Structures are given as C-alpha cells and as structure tokens.
Amino acid sequence: MTHTRFAFVKANWHSDIVDRALDGFLELIPAAQVDVYDVPGAFELPLLAKDLAGTGRYAAVACAAFVVDGGIYRHDFVAQAVVDGLMRAGLDTGVPVLSVSLTPHHYQETDHHNAIYRAHFVEKGREAARAALAVCRTRAAVAA
What share of the chain is helix, strand, coil (3-state, %, to 5)? Predict the structure, then answer.
C-alpha cells in the first residue's frame, strides 16, 4: 500500500526557529497530507517518531529540532543521541525517519543569529520534504 501522508514532529525548544522547518516542508508537500506533532525538546523526538512510523499511516516521518549548548549538558551528546534514535526508529519500523536537527557550535540569541537560523530551517524543511518524496519514490520503484 502506498501512503500519501507524512508526519512532521517538531521540538518546542526554540520554536520560533524550529517551526520554520515546517514552513519549508509545507512548500513542497501539501498541508492536507501532513500531520504535525509537537514534543518538548529534541530528546523526545525519537520515541514519538518510532510510535508514528509504527502506526503504518505514514510514508515518512520528519523531525525538527535546534540543539544548542544550554550549559546544562553537552549539546553534542544530545544531538548524537537524537540522530541515532531517529535512525534506529526508521530502521526498526521500515519507515523513513528524516532529521532536521541542527546543532550549531556558536549560536547566540541575537537578532542576527535568529534570522540566519530561521532562514536556514526553512531551507532544511524543503530539503526534508525533497528527501521524503525521493525516498518514497525510490522505495515504490524497488517494490514494483
């Protein structure tokens, strides 16, 4: 069965920036085909991605987060755990799980940096949509 629905999961941490990835994603995939879910932060993405992929309702699941050094623990540790978890969710379920998780080393909450990352997340959302569509086409061709 070919699915035409997509799930998009976004972390609420830095939502003013992360939500722009959904904007880019929806430029290429109609909103009527996308179910949107929110989680508190990046660390919660893999579990929900696996749950959504496991439903069998989605052709792909895209996940977006902005992981910055918050001083509590190393952002590279969180980023690695998130990306590994997303990959595992896709491999365990057989549904593509795509990451739009950015981990800048030198982010500062300034108007300049915020504008740069908002624009970058729009482009990353477009890239996730292109990847979701391409991997679904390729998998359909392989199955045919």
Answer: 55, 15, 25
